[in-house]
Model the fold of this input.
Amino acid sequence: MIDSSKEIQSYRAYLTLGNYKSSTVNAYCRTLYHFFQFVSTNYNAKDPTQDHVQTYLLKRLENGKSWSTINADYSSLRKYFKIIKDYPWSLKKLPRPKKDKRLPSLLSKEDVARLINAAPNYKYQVFLTFLYATGARLSEACHVKIEDIDSNRMQIRISQGKGGKDRYLLLPHALLEILRQYFKVYKPQTYLFNGRIKGTPYSTSAGQWTVRRARDLAGITKKCSIHTLRNCYATHHLELGTDLVYLQEQMGHKHLKTTAKYIRLCIERYRHIKHPLDVISIQYRPPKTR
Done:
């Protein structure tokens, strides 16, 4: 039987040397661990094959895992077999799952205000405002340092965002004033948003709890997560006429088509469209009521 701990260790070393983010390294190795557990429990195989991967992914799907989770599992196992095991991977035999074409969750501007107003304390309010005002990802916002805020150039530096890329975000004047007041009250160290211990970053789990708690206190029944604020940032910007390419740069999207998906969420742009039914004249002849 394959030495799973040794294989996972080799995989971790490869991913680490490849400069993958620690969260990605942990997620990929965790997937490989669960895959080995599945194979050892259900098969007496010395070396797992692509057939075992297929069965594992189908089982995960039967257990109610989302397609995005299945796709992440696929990426991890495919890389392991191709790189670590030098195994021929047949896309005909095991194609990559297609992404669900679901519209992302969205709140109105009024609901965003309700959400922020309902946050349990001032720090949480500022944190949610920062996410909405910048469109930053949760992990990016948690790791913004005080030195990353440039009030002279009105920019916020995002270091090592998704894909290991740096970028600059626009710092709105309104947000700058909010952050200055917040700094006077909390006096954070190193990171803009500190965890329980000053000088440490705010945890992503705490950030997720913050939006859930604010949603409950606001009485918002729509689906709402941290990423919803990022969706709102993009959609509300587009409704106000912001350039799509500019938004792509701000959000750190690799492809413009990723940003363009938010156009489908815009309502304001449709309110000025005149439907042909509004301009044609039809004489309807309803039947006489009996």
The beta strands are 149-150, 155-158, 167-170. The chain is about 55% helix and 5% strand.
